[in-house]
């Protein structure tokens, strides 16, 4: 009898309150005023048709419903959780994440990463502006003035893989002069009339290369390599123009990658080298990044756009156009710092009858005590006052 009791396990040794009753309901574990409930309620009303369209109709169903995945990702970002592995851990351990899953299996980190970078890429902007329109319908937006500011985000790319447009143009011009000299010698020796134009360099070099290949084939030229071997005339010209063609192809690829910019990054062609903010050692250097512009109304972000230009001056007009197109209305006034001041911006705002509140770039000079009361200060003040009266408020003029 003692031996039987020795191996008997007491399953209630922790007491009755510790026993679980399955299936476990998480509804009572999430308070009524928890932020995850509000988030789920607001995101439930959005149109996810564009997100569902990103998935293939063939094959197996996704591990987690796309709408639920979007809720999980949004709530994780609101809790300052950005790593896909940490989001996976939260889905397994955090009650709020488990409540969002509603009985579905917790996604792994690779599923979260694929959803974030692949499936959500095309639908993210649409979902964002749908949420802004819900704020508008709830009268949460003033729709009177928009506050615009920007920040530069460093790209995840090598900061030493820059390509400069001016440098590419210089080396391409040097090579073009060498090509002209080589074409003249080739026409003289082969009695031809080849020419290479600036607009059709690649096609003309290919034409010369095909002629030399056919010449080598008809003459039965033997290609030799290594020290002590003498190359034939056909081989020398063919190898020369092949090198020209290879380099010209690289220059054409660089020119297409610039997209109107002065530089780009090899490991991230969409990123542009721009001055970032000083680090803790006050080191300011060029790094690949993006210029992110944000519009705020009533403490809500109502518009976001990404630009490749490092200067905020040239982002104001396209950002306002994009904002009006996405929101469906135009703000009567625009507020921004001195980095956005330009005559082009003032002219655009005047044409659209929008009132600007933009800090002048010379505002700090006006406050200089050394210039107060001097003719230079008075002249500058009257000049700026006249310019702002003409450009900023034409309807009162």
Description:
The protein has 397 residues and is α/β, with parallel strands linked by helices. The chain folds into three domains: 23-140, no CATH class; 143-161 and 266-332, no CATH class; 163-264, no CATH class. Helix content is 47%, strand content 12%. The protein is built from 15 helices and eight strands. The chain has helices spanning 2-6, 35-44, 49-53, 66-78, 84-93, 95-101, 109-119, 124-137, 165-190, 201-219, 233-258, 316-327, 343-351, 363-366, 375-391, and strands spanning 145-154, 162-164, 263-265, 272-275, 286-297, 300-307, 333-336, 355-358. The strands form two sheets. Strands 1, 4, 5, 6, 7 and 8 form a six-stranded mixed beta sheet that branches. Helix 5 (84-93) packs across helix 7 and helix 10 (201-219) runs antiparallel to helix 11 (233-258). The chain is extended. It starts with a helix and ends in a 6-residue tail after the last helix. Mean pLDDT is 86; it is low at 389-397.
Please give the count of helices.
Answer: 15
Integer tally of domains: 3
Which stretches of 5+ consecutive residues score pLDDT under 50? 389-397
| SSE pattern, N- to C-terminal | HHHHHHHHEEHHHEEEEHEHEHH
Summarize the main sheet.
6 strands, mixed
Computed structural class: alpha/beta
What share of the residues lie within helices?
40-55%
**Strand portion, in percent?**
5-15%
Strand elements, count: 8
Rg to the nearest angstrom? 33 Å
SSE order and pairing:
Layout: H1 2-6, H2 35-44, H3 49-53, H4 66-78, H5 84-93, H6 95-101, H7 109-119, H8 124-137, E1 145-154, E2 162-164, H9 165-190, H10 201-219, H11 233-258, E3 263-265, E4 272-275, E5 286-297, E6 300-307, H12 316-327, E7 333-336, H13 343-351, E8 355-358, H14 363-366, H15 375-391
Parallel strand pairs: 1-7, 7-8
Antiparallel strand pairs: 1-5, 2-3, 4-5, 5-6
Helix pairs in contact: 2-4, 5-6, 5-7, 9-11, 10-11
